[in-house]
Design goal:
The protein is α+β, with helices and mostly antiparallel strands and 303 residues long. It contains 11 helices and 9 strands.
Length: 303
């Protein structure tokens, strides 16, 4: 891999040569024909390349990613492109989690929502959790769900946290509300037991422990996709499958531990392996997937 340097004129004509920042290096790589072609292929025309590249450059300057290699940044952005999502905390589609200079991409429930809402005929999808204190029932194909949004006691605790405090876990389950363009509303229900089985299959419990409510919401959306509750086009299905792949790897999901998730070979790695050794283009093979770290992104309040 060629190292990109920044040259600055100083003093009596002497030159100060210093390495570019990772953000500038990534920007330079994105301008190379090889990487722009790879990203363009990953984006598949669903988004303008310049728009996506600009979001990547902004994200690369995030102080949390200081110390991460430019190569790892580039690989993570390629993964995000394949998912059909956008990087950056402003969008909350994915969490980019650094460890020892390497970034792990973890899709968030808002990212799944973003992709699913691109399906023709789907106006909105919304995952909702049900607390044991809520009034909830199904009737005539619809639902009745009432709760006080200002009730400070209406919290969703990780089962281990509740158990340690000798409290019962208050999660009853959740559902995905699917609003079609026609005005029809469809629901997909996921029990607390199913959410618990998915949690149990994760080797890495840090994300579940610190981000329990958001992980439950994501499980609801993932379950609806895996069961093909709504018809998804092959292109969007491929993007959601790539997100599932990244999520499984980030969490270390293993069906043998009680869940149903599967781990498949990274499509990003397969594509990266085909990029060759073009000048000024990162060798993605060096940026292997990393274990999720002790530092976990701060939870985002569910809406």
């Amino acid at each position: 891999m060629t190292t990109i340097n920044e040259t600055k004129q100083i003093g009596d004509g002497a030159k100060d040569v210093r390495p570019k920042s990772a953000a500038l290096t990534v920007q330079g790589w994105m301008q190379s024909p090889t990487m722009s072609a790879a990203l363009g292929s990953a984006l598949g025309g669903y988004m303008d390349f310049k728009t996506f590249a600009a979001q990547c450059y902004i994200t690369a300057q995030d102080p949390k990613l200081v110390g991460c290699s430019a190569e790892s940044m580039m690989k993570s952005f390629l993964e995000v492109a394949q998912m059909g999502m956008l990087p950056g905390p402003a969008h909350k589609h994915v969490a980019l989690v650094p460890r020892n200079g390497v970034i792990t991409v973890t899709p968030e429930w808002r990212g799944y929502k973003f992709v699913m809402e691109k399906q023709a005929g789907i106006k909105r999808v919304r995952p909702i959790l049900v607390h044991k204190s809520d009034v909830f029932s199904t009737t005539g194909g619809g639902i009745v769900h009432e709760y006080d949004p200002f009730d400070d006691a209406r919290v969703f605790e990780h089962p281990d946290v509740a158990k340690a405090a000798k409290r019962e876990c208050q999660l009853r389950g959740g559902y995905l509300e699917i609003l079609h363009d026609t005005g029809e509303v469809e629901y997909h229900f996921v029990s607390a037991a199913k959410i618990e089985r998915n949690r149990a299959c994760a080797e890495t419990q840090k994300l579940w422990m610190k981000w329990f409510e958001e992980q439950c919401l994501k499980t609801i959306v993932r379950d609806a996709f895996s069961k093909r509750v709504v018809s998804i086009s092959p292109e969007l299905g491929s993007r959601l499958a790539a997100a599932d792949d990244a999520d499984n790897r980030a969490l270390g999901n293993d069906p043998a531990r009680g869940g149903t998730a599967t781990v498949i070979q990274s499509r990003t790695e397969r594509m990266a392996a085909q990029l060759g050794a073009a000048e000024d283009v990162p060798n993605m093979a060096l940026a292997a997937t990393a274990e999720v770290i002790d530092a976990v992104p701060e939870p985002v309040a569910a809406t």
